[in-house]
Design brief:
Arc Repressor Mutant, subunit A, two-stranded antiparallel sheet, 24% strand, 302 residues
Length: 302
């Protein structure tokens, strides 16, 4: 006998008749008409080739075949109900493995220091963190969510904007003591810049300074180019040169004085941070919890 939804529905109606003690009572509990309940039971009996109920004006009782069938299907219906309830609960419970593909700056400076807090908050969650700044195939290999800076390209992915962070220029106090303070972006030519390579073009990102709608793109030069912002930050802290960084995550360095802002009144440039997820009707609880946590962390550090 092939399984279909109508058969399962008929069995559900039959069980309601047994539990409620009659067709009329079952109709009330199922929000159907008594004739609708009667037709559903008749279709089930026809499908099974057996009569399930004795029908009299005073009572409705199970036949011998009906009793046997009811006894066999009742545990199965209970298992289906339990499975459905478990699935619904899993949609609300933060559990399981979440695979995240994250930009290196976000992963190392913003997210990694907060992982103990995330894991303590959600003890049934496990994290698979892939750190890369490449855009190609960032959702490959079962990635649940990707975190990237910059405006998104058109795609089938769902892009959720998390924030906009300022672009700040910074240096170690020792570097400025050695090379002198800057008062205008035009003075950049006399300074050593730590350059960051664009993963899409392979060339260093150009530098910009913005103030009240004015944009200056000075010529910058430096002997060090890297594709790892954490390495550039460490070199900057060691006094090698000036570095342009996202304000997001930089607070510990600035508050401790290990780095100081340079040309702070020319720091109006903003850069967005997006979360990318596959297009799906319902996001699982683990993904919703992670994105809410990221939004919270960015609100603190941005």
């Amino acid at each position: 006998m092939d399984f279909d939804a109508r058969l399962l529905s008929g069995i559900g109606v039959m069980v309601a008749v047994v539990e409620q003690g009659g067709f009329t009572q079952a109709a009330d509990s199922l929000r159907l008409t008594p004739s609708g309940v009667s037709r559903a039971v008749a279709r089930l009996e026809e499908r099974l080739g057996s009569r399930l109920f004795h029908r009299t004006p005073r009572a409705v009782t199970l036949t011998e075949e009906g009793e046997r069938f009811h006894a066999e299907v009742l545990p199965l219906l209970g298992a289906i109900t339990d499975a459905a309830a478990g699935l619904a609960e899993s949609g609300r419970t933060v559990r399981g493995r979440l695979k995240v593909n994250a930009d290196p700056w976000f992963a190392r400076v913003v997210l990694a220091p907060r992982l103990p807090e995330l894991m303590e908050r959600h003890p049934l969650l496990s994290l698979d963190l892939v750190v890369t700044n490449h855009l190609e195939e960032m959702m490959a290999g079962g990635v649940d969510v990707a975190i990237r800076f910059g405006e998104p390209e058109p795609s089938s992915l769902i892009a959720r904007k998390l924030l906009e962070t300022r672009v700040v220029t910074c240096a170690a106090p020792a570097y400025l003591a050695r090379r002198g303070e800057l008062h205008h972006p035009s003075e950049m030519a006399a300074h050593e810049a730590l350059l960051f390579r664009d993963p899409q073009t392979g060339r260093p990102f150009p530098w910009e300074f913005q103030r009240a709608g004015e944009v200056i793109s000075p010529k910058v030069s430096g002997r060090t180019v890297t594709d790892d912002p954490s390495a550039a930050l460490a070199a900057c802290e060691a006094g090698l040169g000036l570095f342009q960084s996202f304000a997001l995550g930089l607070k510990p360095w600035l508050e401790s004085g290990r780095l100081v802002p340079v040309l702070a009144d020319w720091a109006d440039e903003r850069f967005p941070l997006y979360a990318f997820t596959p297009s799906r009707k319902h996001a699982p609880a683990k993904l919703r919890a992670f994105l809410d946590f990221v939004q919270e962390v960015c609100g603190r550090d941005g």
